[in-house]
Each structure stands twice: as structure tokens, then as C-alpha cells.
Amino acid sequence: MDHKLSVLVQVDLDGRYVRLVVTGCLTEANQHVLYPLVRRARTLVPPVTVSVDLTGAGHVEAIAVDLLRWAIEHEETMAGTGPAELLLPSSPPGHRHAPCPGSRRVGTVGRAA
After folding, report:
1. How many folded domains does the chain comprise?
2. Report for 42-51, 52-61, 81-90: range of highest mean pLDDT
């Protein structure tokens, strides 16, 4: 299964805010690629505020959000850096209706495999 993830990095002119705009599919298998981007963004010009914007993602797995949140909260080397926040879609993770490209529907619930 091909779950693609795309990330656009937006940095304000003052360097105080960095926004990682995520599109595509955020899954348990690919969430780990976001964390190095968050880590690097947090060290640009401390104390920068980093937002991981998942509102435009077509598919978000709840476990992926939990793992990403845990990694952000438990990074020991980030002492003295600014905060990082997750901006979640309005529907609960894992319940978005848009399937990932290349995914197939299983059963009648319509969950992507």
C-alpha cells in the first residue's frame, strides 16, 4: 500500500513561527518522518513555535497522532526550545472520509486498509 505524505514548511519572516502543513496520508507506518522535521524546526531560532497542521490531510490514523504527540512531548534534547503543537482535523483521526491513493476499501465501513 502506498501511503504518501507531503509536508510544506512555512516560516514567518521573524522566524518565530514555523508551520508544517501536512497533506496526504498520515499513518502509523509513516508518522516517524515528521518528527525530524519538527525537531529541526524547533531549533531554528529558539524559542520558535512549531505547528504541525494536519487539517489538510486526507487520511489521519489516530495511532499515528498518538505516536507523534508522544515523540514531541518526550524529546529530551529540546529543553529551552519553543513549543510544538498539533492542529488536528475537525473529524476525529482515523475517521476522515477521503481514502489514500492506492488504498482499497475493506468491508462496508469504508476504512482504508
Report:
1. 1
2. 52-61
